[in-house]
Amino acid sequence: MIDTEALRTQPELDGENVVLAQLDDSYFAAAWEAVRDPEVIRLTGTHTKFTEEQIHRFLASRPGLEDRADYAILRKEDRAYLGDVVLSDIDEHNRSGGFRIALTGPDVFGKGYGTEATKLLLDYAFDVVGLHRVSLEVFAHNPRARRVYEKCGFVREGIQRQALWWDGEWHDVITMAVLKTDPRP
Ligand SMILES: CC(C)(COP(=O)(O)OP(=O)(O)OC[C@H]1O[C@@H](n2cnc3c(N)ncnc32)[C@H](O)[C@@H]1OP(=O)(O)O)[C@@H](O)C(=O)NCCC(=O)NCCS
């Protein structure tokens, strides 16, 4: 059994330098900047060009869902919005879910926020929601993200060859997962 109530209510997750809080439309301004940042777009392979209306609708519809948890990553000292981290595609029968994370842009990369947010979300996924497995996909050309995932316990499981067409070239996609029983550094 997984705890769907924990997904619906999404408790705030408290770390040393970041806090994870329910994502909602109050973060629109910063989230709208992030979806238009060229480096975030490149590293997430986002082909879609979103409208403001789509982002408002997406953010406003996040609270109360029972099959996923969308968290805003906030800097602890001033609760500034740093990005989002998501547990999605929850499969109750197999107690599994998917993971994604994106900070708002290069000015906040490389400061440890992504590692801390990933660890907080995994602790929530395994210890609170009761999942057994969390998986993700990452582009081969994203060594920073790959390093963060390895540091948080994700294990490389496979490679989807030339699964992304970007800027006139094919790129490989790496699949990784972490189990509840794996070491979580
Ligand atoms: C990926 C992301 C979440 C990582 O968060 P972050 O806060 O920037 O990363 P951290 O500061 O916590 O850790 C970065 C680690 O990568 C390492 N790193 C940075 N650049 C690297 C590179 N080119 N090669 C290898 N390692 C690299 C750092 O040294 C650090 O590891 P260390 O602590 O062992 O020294 C963030 O950069 C981001 O949102 N990027 C844009 C969107 C994205 O790529 N999302 C993931 C899509 S799968």
TrEMBL record:
The keyword Transferase applies. This is GCN5 family acetyltransferase. Residues 18-185 form the N-acetyltransferase domain. SUPFAM superfamilies: Acyl-CoA N-acyltransferases (Nat). It comes from the Bacteria. Keywords: Transferase. GO terms for cellular component: cytoplasm. One of its GO terms (molecular function) is protein N-terminal-serine acetyltransferase activity. InterPro entries: Acyl_CoA_acyltransferase, GNAT_dom, Ribosomal_N-acetyltransferase. It comes from Amycolatopsis regifaucium.
